[in-house]
Write a structure and sequence with these properties.
The protein is an all-alpha fold and 113 residues long. The chain starts with a helix and ends in a 13-residue tail after the last helix. The structure holds heme C. Heme C (HEC) binds next to helix 3, helix 4 and helix 5.
Length: 113
């Protein structure tokens, strides 16, 4: 039988290892991801696919594109400018945010009467 202290040690070590990903405040992550919503749609579900939806996209793919835009390796009209405003850690959080969104239709605009 595994002793409780041993299990604590194992879980304790595990939580230290994964702390950076877990520690990010979800409100903070959403607020930096929200800077993309204007063009890519709320939560990255774009209207009509232009610019492309980010929702549910592969995280590694998103991060690589953002870094390549920022570093001038991928030509762009807008994204090379926009991507320059973030640190690697922020780009990582943003990529993770959109990767975790379930892809789907953009929400319809509310009807104002
Ligand atoms: C002002 C509008 C605008 C904003 C804001 C914007 N984008 Fe973009 N995005 C575009 C356009 C336009 C493209 C097509 C490439 C280009 O010409 O810049 C694009 C392309 C991309 C691509 C490539 C998609 C693919 O399928 O390869 C990614 C990834 C991306 N944007 C992520 C983001 C993220 C993340 C943010 C927020 C940090 C963001 N964009 C903010 C307009 C925008």
């Amino acid at each position: 039988m595994v002793k409780a202290t041993t299990m604590l040690a194992v879980f304790g070590a595990g939580s230290i290892w994964i702390t950076p990903a877990v520690a990010a405040d979800p409100q903070y992550v959403r607020s930096i991801a929200a800077t993309c919503f204007t063009c890519h749609g709320t939560d990255g579900r774009s209207v009509g696919g232009v610019p492309p939806s980010l929702a549910g996209q592969n995280k590694d793919y998103l991060l690589k594109q953002l870094q390549e835009f920022r570093d001038g390796k991928r030509p762009a009209t807008i994204m090379h400018q926009h991507a320059k405003g973030y640190t690697d850690e922020q780009l990582n959080l943003i990529a993770g945010y959109f990767a975790a969104v379930i892809p789907g239709q953009a929400a319809a605009a509310p009807v104002v009467k």
